[in-house]
């Protein structure tokens, strides 16, 4: 397959920081205008994600959990089939969280001390556990970061190999702090907004006992151009993404909640101390 044999107006997602990259062997994420096109992945994970978005988006939805989670999830605009190299690939149309920003600085944080789902076979469990052995104590992974450097006017990018190379004690300084630093400017304004939004997600998880999220991420984006003329509602946005392993439950999602608490602790420790 020629990965670039894409219909007019459709491009490979330009600001992707993690996940499946579109290539000759893999249908990955694409973009068209202000929307992200995410492939419906192989069964059953693709269907699980699509069903999740459909439940969240259902206008007749009566379940309060699916209604409450709407504000934390990109808008879903339905599915479409995209002709790529003589195949009709099934894609979901999603709100592009980065598009309101002039110079989006992005990180993908995979949340949870366990990334394999309850149906995972022993091989998958071993494979997932080996990716970041200290995950049970850390509760989240940095899968990617993209930061706009205001000194060089370039983006600097870090991948999941970098994220997983960090010891737990370095996830602050060499991870999250690095994400919030542009040149020699540490973005306290952004930090405060991120903490506020993660707390709202944490509050949601303290109440809901319907869904458990494995291998799901928080996508964090902030405005990297401090002189941007674009009107933005917030200097940063925190959204939940990647729902291939969402399962029904009747309990609190302690796995996800644990990761959120650690993240909040790390971010809060970065706030300048008042004298
Ligand atoms: N709604 C969105 N708006 C903007 N960027 C997005 C959006 N959804 C995904 N992305 C970008 O694409 C990347 C991968 O997304 P996602 O995790 O959903 O893909 P995936 O292929 O399922 O990943 P994985 O292989 O980890 O399961 C994100 O890190 C982000 O950079
Ligand atoms: O965290 P990473 O390094 O991005 O790893 C991938 C990610 O966890 C995917 O969600 C997972 O697919 P599943 O959703 O199917 O588990 C994939 O597993 P795979 O290699 O078994 O496809 C991993 O490689």
UniProtKB/TrEMBL annotation:
Keyword Amino-acid biosynthesis set for record: no
Domain of life: Eukaryota
SUPFAM superfamilies attached to this UniProt entry: SAICAR synthase-like (SSF56104)
One GO term (biological process): inositol phosphate biosynthetic process
Enzyme Commission number, as recorded: 2.7.-.-
Similarity comment: Belongs to the inositol phosphokinase (IPK) family.
The protein's name in its UniProt record: Kinase
